[in-house]
Amino acid sequence: MLRKSIWALSFLSVSLYSADTVAFTLENDFFGSREDDHYTNGAFLVWMHELDEKSKLNFFMDDLQTNTALSLTHQIFTPKNKAASEPVWDDLPYAGYAKLNFLLYKSTANYFHEFGINIGAVGPVTRAQQLQDFFHKVIGDDPFQGWDNQLGNHVMAGVSYQYAYKSDAWDCYGYKVDSISNIRGDAGNFYSGVLVSTTLRLSSQTPTTFITAGNFMVTDESDLLNVEDSRGFNWDVSFGLYANAIYNYYIIDEGIDLGYHLDQMKSALGFQGAINVMYGSFKCTYKIKSAYVNGSRDKHYGGLTLIWNF
Which residue has the higher pLDDT, 303 or 222? Predict the structure, then answer.
């Protein structure tokens, strides 16, 4: 019943939603370390819509551009040992996570405020085992054997706020350079924490979009803000550093409560690199992210995003 309710809400939201920009992202550790473990796969569908000045959402910050976004998220977590059918007590538990995220943006060309609220679930309701088994069958890889031990069903909810500032671009031998810095806070029963980042970007044209390293995962819905059609072929590359203070993270915390020998996540430091190529209404983004958790454990993962502006 819970699974049917979540997917019914997702379908209804998508059906009623009108979008100017849509993006699909596939995150996988194959794009980073090629090690099939821990955060091993994520799929994201994002819609971004710019509202007119008469929108009821202009009751505050009415001098700023207003955008809304809707995103669907699905993520899969596994231990390293794919052959073990019993719980791997000294590693991450099996888990699937799915959520629906509603976002409101207030922005100018140089900065934005992002307000978010999300609802979702962890557990078999997310169909993580079935999705991973299907993917492994397609690529000819052996399935993980321990999904009977995955975390049980639990409803998740949270809120978030993000602020980012983008400098005016300056000329560098005919190319454009800008910097983007941000701070982000999340509070919820899946994840709570504060993250700050700064990113430097080199572009073949004057950029209108934002790109930050300021999300707990690779995907950030704010990448779709101010996407415009490209005149011919263009590109940009960026590199960012981030620091993350973590208060709670459900996958780890629930595992500890169940007897897994894990350390609570307290911090993460890392970098993010990205390459964008644009032509007309289409954009393709590749990102790679590295995270040093609690100052030691290193994890590399990446994502490939396809964006269509219409």
Answer: 222
Could you tell me how far CA 284 lies from the centroid of its own chain? 16
- The mean pLDDT of 250-268, rounded to a whole number, is 94
Q: Which token pair is 297?
A: 């454990």
How far apart, in Å, are the Cα atoms of 159 and each of 7, 64, 118, 227?
20, 22, 6, 25
Q: What SS3 class is residue 129?
A: helix
Sign of CA dihedral 152, 155, 159, 165: positive
Euclidean distance between CA atoms 111 and 114, whole angstroms: 10
pTM of the model: 0.88
Residues 297 and 27 sit within 8 Å (Cβ to Cβ): no
Ordered domains of the chain (ranges, CATH): 2-305 (2.40.128.140)
What are 73's two structure tokens?
């998220």
Distance (Å, whole) CA 195 – CA 184: 5
**pLDDT tens-digit map of 105-122:** 999 999 999 999 999 999
Residue 106 near residue 66 (C-beta atoms within 8 A): yes
Does residue 191 contact residue 221 with C-beta atoms inside 8 Å?
no
- Write down the pLDDT at residue 1: 46
Q: Does residue 65 contact residue 107 with C-beta atoms inside 8 Å?
A: yes
For 186-195, 253-262, 293-302, which range has the lowest pLDDT when averaged over its residues? Answer: 293-302
For tokens 């779709």, name the residue. Answer: 224
